[in-house]
Specification:
By secondary structure, this protein is mainly β. It has one domain. Helix content is about 0%, strand content about 25%. It contains no helices and 15 strands.
Amino acid sequence: MLTLIPVKSSMPSTVVGQQTLTSSQTFTVPDGAENLCVVAVGSGGNRGTNHVFGFPSVTYFAGAGGGGALCWANALPVNPGDTIEVTIGARGSQTDTTLAVNGTVILRAGAGKNGGNGNSANGGTATRTGGKGGLFSSILPSGSWGGGAGADGSGGMTSGSAPPSAGGAGGYSGKGGFSNGSVGGSSGSGGGGGSNKGSASGGVGLQGEGTSGQGSFTGYSTLSNGSSPGPFFGGAEVHGGAVRFIWGKGRAFPKTRTADITEAA
């Protein structure tokens, strides 16, 4: 939701606000907006399709999906009235989340890749690989941006073993939790990994850096990075991508006045 709030000041009128996008569109920098900052999250990858072969049947588990990356940036080089082309991928689309100004991509939060199908051809190994986690990058000046890569999904195995688990979304200052679920993301990182029994993974919130997500041995990882409880994005097999802009004096990612502001400050 778009929020514009006049700041009471003797200086020329400025505004403080924020806007979250979950689909591709053109973003126009609001009138009076200064110090535009952004966080972008790539979509999570999907799990491949299991393959059942032979009699008695053997299940070749498909590879799990990788987590989407997160990338944030502060003080974007734009002015009120300028436009930013925002591309956001849906879950499993393998389409990176990007911001482009005048045709040049200035920031990228990579999508997690899909896991390979559980095909038994060629021994069933090459096609059951886990999806790679997304990577992040920017052409903006060093020190003005950061983020974390998504975690890889684990590869499929034959029946008799636990199905693979998905990779966690990247965080504001570190990689997402690994998919075996034995550990969550490192301190300040992204969503936790999935369980070791084939679950989906944890996502990451857009409100700024918070508590790191934790892996789960039994199911969906609900503890995900973010200073408030969701919504979450980027978790493999669960979430698509998203972008959140914030603007106003004194605001900066990863965690300086990044939560929604409902009053002028």
